[in-house]
Hints:
The protein is an alpha+beta fold. It contains 8 helices and 5 strands, in the order E-E-H-E-E-E-H-H-H-H-H-H-H. The chain has a 5-stranded antiparallel β-sheet, with helices on one face. The N and C termini lie far apart (141 Å).
Amino acid sequence: MRLRRLDLEKYGAFEGRSLVFxxxxxxxxxxxxxxxxxxxxxxxxxxxxxxxxxxxxFAFRYATGDLRLGATICDASGRELSFRRRKGNKxxxxxxxxxxxxxxxxxxxxxxxxxxxxxxxxGLSSAALRDGAEDLLSADGESGASLFxxxxxxRGVEDQRKALxxxxxxxxxxxxxxxxxxxxxxxxxxxxxxxxxxxxxxxxWKRINESIEALEARHADLxxxxxxxxxxxxRVERLGRAHRAAAAVDEGMRTS
Length: 256
């Protein structure tokens, strides 16, 4: 997105002022003496794109309901869009006649850009530049994290990185026997050796199954023999009872 025109209709000390930017320029420089309103113009860009906050420092000349900004912007294809912004709770994007426009009118131009990231990465004021410099100096030489913090506003990245490194160091360090990972790894290795000692290999498993099959076959053979023996015993018992009965009959005949 490129800014083609910024209209400071009623904003801060401005009324009816416009900044027009050449469409073919690669760089625009807005200059002026101290207190000329450069910071106000920069803040106006943020309010224009993302809306006025609940409280504003730029309503000292006009009532908050009268604040107006306008702009013409263009996308990467060169397509232009003109709109105005008013102070309010809803429908703050308006047209030249103050008719409400869609709230998401700028979504295609801004993408995922938020106000905070815009103000810290693109709309840097003098105070923001100083804060970014302090971040650079306070990050112990970690320039990548420092630049990230200065641009995005996500401070404390270096502290978080150090905390994560300390946590990782508490878990594992090569050749350190007291770290939690090393202790758990030793327990794992001991358990693995114990499993290897007591595990049943394929050949042993095969021998046990063969032994079970042989025992089952012997059991079946013995069971068949036991049934045969029980049959023989029952026959012998019947013969014995018949013999005793026949002997008793013979004895009775002799005595009579």
